[in-house]
Structure formats: structure tokens, C-alpha cells
Amino acid sequence: MTDIKFTGERLVPGVSPADLEAEHMSRYHFIKNLVKGKKVLDIGCGAGYGSKILSETAEVVIGIDIDKDAISYATEKYGSETVSFVVGDVEMMPFNDFEFEAGVCFEVIEHIERPRAMLTEASRVISGGGLFIISTPNGAVKVSSQPNPYHLREYLMGEFTDLLKQFFPLDLWELKIYGQFLRGKNYSSTNVALKNFYLTMKGKLGIKPSSKGTVDIQKINPEFDFKIEDRDLAEYLIAVIKGK
């Protein structure tokens, strides 16, 4: 079995911290019924766990990622008659125009140098009446005292929305932005502002976050809600774009 390590960014089920695993997987569970019966492209699929979740409802799922080790791992662990994986650059994908009925791209756009190239490709390979779902961290809400070294850019909600509308114009596509909320956590504007201030001050003092380490998934399995209300206070934004 191909071995891939948790670097602090790419999720590896059973290796990454359990709360992080639940956070990532919940996004796929949130949208899996939207892709029911469809041919789906999982853009930047990483270790492939999300493609597997989507295959519970989709007709077929193809995952693409530039990391050869991740694709080898995904193929060995999750490959099946309805789930397959290919090595490829998400900024220049090896697929035909309108080949897919749905595309999913979770926590990718903040990592790549040419996000417009990726969105151009996504709009090219997804059919006009199809579906595109993309998530990214909310740049207005801090999660650490230190910048994420793997992120080239974190978008404010307005920036994220404006960028998507350039490639999925609203006369042809319906766009909804959801926030991902940890169930039971207080997301008031006051609390978010205080947290941002606290983490900013820690950063200025050079105080780095402590490592969470690996946690037993049975001991910590948080649940999340996805809603449009107060989405600007959420740590993660999920755009659901449907063809009209």
C-alpha cells in the first residue's frame, strides 16, 4: 500500500487529527445528494476519501490531483468500478469539454498559483446545465496565530463570490454561498472579532499554535451545520453553483 504522510495540510484518514478529518469529510457528506446519479469530477482529490463518499450517490466519480503518491494511495484504497483517479494539473485538465455533469473542488483554490486557470477548466469540463461546488477558507476569520504556509491566498466572501461569477455568470448559473459551522459553537460577530484580535496579537508576539497530534476518531467526532445565514462569520465558505 502506498504510504502518504499527514503534513499538516492534506488530510489522510486515520492519520490526520480526528476533528480535522470530520471537518473535511462533512463537506462531502453535505453535498453528496446533490450529485446523485451524476458523472462527477473531484478536482484536487488528494487522498481520495471524498471521491469515495461522493460515489455513494453519484453514477461515477473521477478524482484528479497533481500528486502522484496521493493518486496511487487513492487508487489502491478507494478505486472501484465507479471510482477512478488520474494524475493531472487542475489548471490544465485532460478531459473533454462538458464531459462532467458535476464538479467538486474542496480546499484547493487557495493553494494554486493560477486560480483563474483552474476555474476556466472547471467551467469548460462541466456541462452547461450542471453543477459546480467549491470551498475555501474564509479570509475574514482567523484560525491560527500564524499564516498557513500552504495557502497562497485566502479569500474574503465578496472576493470569492466576484471571482466565481466571472466564470459562472449569473444569467446562466445560480450561485449560493454557505458557511460551515461547528455545531454548538457561538459564531457571533463579537466572538469572531475577539478571536481575530487574540490570534493577531499572538502572531505579533511570535506565539505559534501547539500541535494537536493524532486523535482517536471515536473520541472526537464533531458535527457541522451548513447554512447561508451568518456565512460571513464561518471559517469555511462553500459555493454551490447550479446551471439554470
Report on this model:
There is one protein chain. With 244 residues, this protein is of the alpha/beta class. Helices cover 28% and strands 23% of the residues. It has a single domain, classed as Vaccinia Virus protein VP39 (Rossmann fold, 3-Layer(aba) Sandwich). It has helices at 18-31, 49-54, 68-78, 115-125, 157-167, 189-204, and strands at 39-43, 60-65, 83-87, 100-106, 126-137, 173-182, 224-227, 236-243. An eight-stranded mixed beta sheet has the order 3-2-1-4-5-8-6-7. Helix 2 (49-54) links the parallel strand 1 and strand 2 (60-65). The radius of gyration is 18 Å and the shape is globular. The relative contact order is 0.17.
CATH architecture descriptor name: 3-Layer(aba) Sandwich
Q: How many domain modules? A: 1
Q: What string gives the helices and strands in order?
A: HEHEHEEHEHEHEE
Rg is 18 Å
- Kindly identify the CATH topology: Rossmann fold
Tell me what portion of residues adopts beta-strand conformation.
15-25%
Low-confidence parts:
212-219
Largest sheet: 8 strands, mixed
Question: What is the tally of helical segments?
Answer: 6
Cα-to-Cα separation, first versus last residue = 43 Å
Question: Which homologous superfamily in CATH is the superfamily?
Answer: Vaccinia Virus protein VP39
Tally the beta strands. Answer: 8
Oligomer: single chain
Mean of pLDDT: 90
Using the coordinates above, name the CATH class: Alpha Beta
What general outline do the C-alpha atoms trace? globular
Class computed from helices, strands and strand pairing: alpha/beta
User: What portion of residues is helical?
Assistant: 25-40%
Strand order of the main beta sheet, please?
3-2-1-4-5-8-6-7
